[in-house]
Amino acid sequence: MSFRTADYVEDVSPGSGTLPPRAWYASSDAASLSLNGSWHFRLSPTADAEDAAFAEPGYDSGGWAEVSVPGHWVLQGHGSPIYTNHRYPFPVDPPRVPTENPTGDHLRVFDLPADWPADGGCVLRFDGVESCARVWLNGTDIGGFKGSRLPHEFAVGQLLRPRGNVLAVRVHQWSAGSYLEDQDQWWLPGIFRDVTLLHRPAGAVRDFFVHASYDHVSGAGTLRVDSDVPGRVTVPDLGVDVATGEPVTVPVEPWTAETPTLYDGVLATEGERVPLRIGFRTVALADGLIKVNGRPVLFKGVNRHEWHPRRGRALDRETMRADVLLMKRHNINAVRTSHYPPHPAFLSLCDELGLWVIDECDLETHGFTEQGWRDNPVDDDRWTPALLDRAARTVERDKNHPSVLIWSLGNEAGTGRGLTAMAEWIRGRDSSRLVHYEGDLTCRDTDVYSRMYAAHAEVERIGRGLDGGTGRRRRLPFIQCEYGHAMGNGPGGLADYQRIFESYERLQGGFVWEWIDHGIEDERYGFAYGGDFGEELHDGNFVCDGLLFPDRRPSPGLIEYKKVIEPVGIDGDGAGGTVRIVNKQDFADLSAFAFTWAYQVDGETVESGDLPVPALAPGESAEVKLPPPPPAGPGETQGTVRAVLAADTAWGPRGHVVAWGRFPVTARQMPSVAATARPVTGERRITLGPAAFDARTGALTAIGAVPVTGLRLDVWRATTDNDDGAAWQTDTRYGLLWRRLGLHRMRHRLDAVEAEGDALTVRTRVAPAAREVGLATVYRWTSDGGRLRLTVSVSPEGDWTVPLPRLGIRFGLSAADRVRWFGGGPGEAYPDTRSAALPGRWESTVDDLQTPYVRPQENGARADVRWAEIGGLRVEGDPEFWFTARRWTTEHLDAAAHLSDLTPGDTVWVNLDHGQHGIGSQSCGPGPLPRYRLRAEPAEFSFVFSPLG
Ligand code: GAL
């Protein structure tokens, strides 16, 4: 006997019984009924463990569970989520799927509202079901579909009755479609987007296509709305009233992401009125550049997966709006909808608030890379109908959004004829937009040369046109559809990328990977990641690589990105008393912004005011005179200029800071301590000014009344995801090399304790077991009676072939909570993530200094600290230092897998670092640039301690 799962699950076809794809819209007057809510639910272990009797009216589902629709059953207590990056979590044997195929039967009984019209037809729409559905209405099998993040509609009018309609949906986790949906994300089966019943009056609109272009030379917009049911199009603000299919040209304000002007219109057919939100804009490939309304654009983008820490990819409107607002408030101007069309409401928000969109088709076959792309569905004609179906469902659904500039064929699907077929179909249907796909280096099907994670030097070569490549590619503009891998602490090097993007016309920016960590709220761990659900195959915390934490709190990476992509360049020149202002926008002048100036002495603002700045056109710059700085005194003086929103906007309040520049006016005076006190050696103790030391070991034990433990050289940090690097990286992965060398288990040998003259000198050698390399380290203590100065001298010995993770001292304080400092803040910074660190006076608790990376790792350093006060001590740096304090040791942090593993001890561990190694992006990209490596070389640095109060 042979056995096969129900054919529709494993056949390569997109489905059967569904209506042709069309534009997604909300009617003004046709009735609709949301079928979201609580559904009866039964989970089976295989695709056909149960027969279809449940779909029959009268079936008793009384004993079933309930799930929320939209939702994923694995996030509602039935089964578990699985995370893999690109490996299929089932044997690769397309189009077959495992017999173990979790299958969720969903049942919903509904009445039509009393006023539901009796005439016309009805359409049942599913906006997203993963991965394959079979649908019955009132016992009739109406068909099935695949294509998880795409809409599917059925004509159901003839089946409906006023009361007691039984809608039964069988959803299979795995199907042939799963082979096309191998995106790097959780596998989350379920009806995860809206289910809606739409009344279709006689003469209703079916599909329509709004063509609204803008002629930047004449300033006119041309509108033509094609509709397969004829009607009229009115746009009152433009005095437009034309028949469908008829073009009309009128003067308009164009739509751009910076100035998202939308005109409200109506498409009226005999049976229906549909609201239109029309944005006039023209996208073109011209002079080898992506131009909108005649001007090249620079994408300051992010890749956005849909994510909510409890609801997975079932996003509500508020969450979508929160995403767009957060993007706008952080200067982001573009989104790639990695790697599938988002909920359609998200695109409406992009239209309304202004974001450029690359709309990506729901397609990825990355797992075939494991077999050298053999049997890749995109190069197999049997799959082409499914690919074309996906392309059509994407384009037809989203074609009326002005924000969508570019269609993307999908992600990481190798190369093949199927992709070409998709591109050809898309061009035939919509010649008004460009086509993107990253996976084919020849660019045969695309209008843009796109790459992911290319290193800075290569991007620069591409900018200069020195990248070789075939004819077509050479003529295309360049974007990084993914760069700056925001996994854990990082990404580093964003400012360096931005400088390169801004230097070469061909480079049209990029999209940081990615917007949000896909951590799942979990009472065991805080947030769970791959492996936390006992998955057989998984890719750990590679799923947490966003600029937002899972709960949408901005990570330091987002704060850094906001600074790096500011729409206004502000470069102060303390000496000349001027500031250079550059309008870095592509379309708008500076009139939306107000400017302020201020001077700070030792981090405290002493003078401030408004700064008149001309409304520079995009690309223009001006030197603007500043009021004179305050008279020079002993303090360090800095100037600050800020650009803020001049008025409330749709996405941010008046006064919201969009850009700032901070520049030195007078330099800081380094702390000096006259070595007037002498060390006094007792039997067990040596005292020097306010400090006490162990006479035998030379270890500091107290400063004044403040006990200090374990002060010594420290070179280790809990490696970041970017230090560890991705397994496939061939480049140097320092996290591994450091551990191999033993930098996490350095031994401290005491060579001498010398209390002579005005100094206590402690000589040591710090080195790992089994290695000949070491760091000769001398601590030299002096005092003026009240303050204590420590100078640390470090001389590397042996052949150091790796940089150091950090170089500084650490010590423990027994009672510390609040921290005040003058230095970079308010958030963390590292050598290549320090753009947003604003020198000033800051205050925090020790707990609030921690950055809650979902997988714990080095975090929380404050840059350029002149002085800090903690636990009854004040520390001044010569030179400035990196300040870190936490309630656990670096070793604990290093060992933790989840935030829940970190339990505060009694001691606060403080690190004062002279140097930190850069962060880079090697969790999926290049490591830190050479200039951010912390080379093992002779170093000397000092701290001045004084007891407070
Ligand atoms: C890319 C891929 C993304 C994601 C990223 C790493 O190769 O397109 O989906 O996997 O790498 O986080």
UniProtKB/TrEMBL annotation:
TM helices/strands, residue ranges: none
Entry's Gene Ontology BP terms: lactose catabolic process
Coiled-coil ranges (or none): none
EC number: 3.2.1.23
Record GO terms (molecular function): beta-galactosidase activity; carbohydrate binding
This protein's GO CC annotations: beta-galactosidase complex
Keywords: Glycosidase, Hydrolase
InterPro entries, sorted: B-gal_small/dom_5, Bact_Beta-galactosidase, Beta-gal/glucu_dom_sf, Gal_mutarotase_sf_dom, Galactose-bd-like_sf, GH, GH-type_carb-bd, Glyco_hydro_2
Protein name: Beta-galactosidase
Organism whose genome encodes this protein: Streptomyces shenzhenensis
Organism lineage: Bacteria, Bacillati, Actinomycetota, Actinomycetes, Kitasatosporales
